[in-house]
Amino acid sequence: MSEVFATTGTIAAIATAVVPQQGSVGIVRVSGSEAMALAQTLFHTPGRQVWESHRILYGYIRHPQTQQLVDEALLLIMKAPRSYTREDVVEFHCHGGIMAVQQVLQLCLENGARLAQPGEFTLRAFLNGRLDLTQAEGIADLVGAKSPQAAQTALAGLQGKLAHPIRQLRANCLDILAEIEARIDFEEDLPPLDDKAIISEIEKIADEITRLLATKDKGELLRTGLKVAIVGRPNVGKSSLLNAWSQSDRAIVTDLPGTTRDVVESQLVVGGIPVQVLDTAGIRETTDQVEKIGVERSRRAANAADLVLLTIDASAGWTEGDREIYEQVQHRPLILVINKIDLIEESERKSLQSEIPNSKSKIFTAAAQNQGIDALETVILDIVNAGKVQAADMDLAINQRQSAALTQAKISLEQVQATIAQQLPLDFWTIDLRGAIQALGEITGEEVTESVLDRIFSKFCIGK
Asked: Cα–Cα distance between 349 and 356 in angstroms, integer?
């Protein structure tokens, strides 16, 4: 392995978030051959408690030289191979906050352990055969999940729901390769190879790969979420819309135009999809230098968003200012939000509809009265689903790395089919077939390089 992931020795790290004056428990995790010896050096148990695997001991952590008390704590013991890393693992469950866990970690480092690299505990679990790469990535996804659906999809990966079909596809490719190589080595002793059967099997494998590739966009949506920018003229109700949608007072609401000077964010979940909502400054020409900066940030937010909510004031009608903003954002996925409909009559609403462009989705809201939010979420999900990116009822969803490997495997299989069609010798068939086998093996880690491991595990937090 590379120096970044030198997986020898005993490692230690803080395994919980360290926040001042928050958190009742902080955990220091230690893994390696000297984990038990280190625990026995630092942890003192009153009475006759038994030091055996999968027991929790009560006691005190003391400095081994001065015997100064560091913390009153619990010690969790997990001996190999029945642990996360399949090595001896101990966890010091200390009081939360900053000082206790940092002092315990420092004692561990002073007494033989070294600080773990990001993801090194999970890397050891992979190298020791407890997890494959898809399960390891599922753990990272679970830690970073932004919605219940994202967590469920991550758990599916952790339970092997992606690894199983990938291994089956690879096994099928290996069976085909064995058939071909047998004809190369023992051509005279075996019946002729059935080309049509080989092509049919390769097509089945390619079709399954295509099905898996179709989950990439779904996975990206669950992992990164949808970025939605609320834009419009000043005082059309953008901040009221954010507050009504998030059911909070995230944004300041007044009757004065230009109140919002910067982008205000709120995190929501819509139909299982994480949504980052950006309330932007009203877009207009202004001489106020601070407001100018806010307007420019609004334009950048609109251009960077996955979806734009162009909000207009129904009581003011479709104005020249609305039209100018529309022309700036109409190339983006867009919903027209006609707000303040509680201030107009039904006849005025029909008249307004005839003025507004018909090419985009539109909804009517009275954000200050909490009206129209359900309709807004329905339209957003319709747009998402129209793009064939549905978050609901997903068993698995591949990530970018897995997508790249599956794409390479599919290309290799297509090349095998072309080789067969050209009636080239059997030796040529095996070249690209081996490429497909290698690409599929990279997904689960059956064939993997140091650079791939570095890229995957460096994204983990240190304690995981």
From this structure: 11
- Which residues fall within 8 angstroms of residue 387, CB to CB, at 6 or more apart? 217
Residue bearing tokens 């026995």: 40
Residue 222: name the closest of 274, 157, 181, 161 by CA.
274
Omega before residue 274 within 30° of 0, cis: no
CA–CA separation, 318 vs 338, rounded Å? 9
Structure tokens that stand for 79 in this block: 């001996």
CB atoms within 10 A of CB 343: 13
Q: Which amino acid is at 14?
A: I
What distance in Å separates the CA atoms of residue 224 and residue 167, rounded to the nearest whole number? Answer: 27
Helix axes 450-457, 120-127, angle to 10 degrees: 140
User: What is the CA 130 to chain-centroid distance, rounded?
Assistant: 22
Distance CA 382, CA 307 (A): 12
Q: What is the pTM of this model?
A: 0.75
Q: What is the largest CA-CA distance in the chain?
A: 90
Note the residue count of the chain.
Answer: 464
Q: Give the residue from 87, 72, 89 showing the smallest Cα distance to 25.
A: 72
What average pLDDT values come out for the chain (464 residues) when binned by 10 residues?
61 85 85 96 95 96 95 96 96 91 95 93 94 92 82 87 94 92 76 86 95 84 83 86 78 44 72 82 56 64 82 89 86 89 84 77 89 91 67 66 95 94 89 95 89 84 78
Amino acid at 333: P
Contact 406, 202 (CB under 8 A): no
Supply the DSSP symbol for 159.
T
Residues whose CB falls within 8 Å of the CB of residue 253, separated by 6 or more in sequence, listed in order: 239, 240, 243, 259, 368
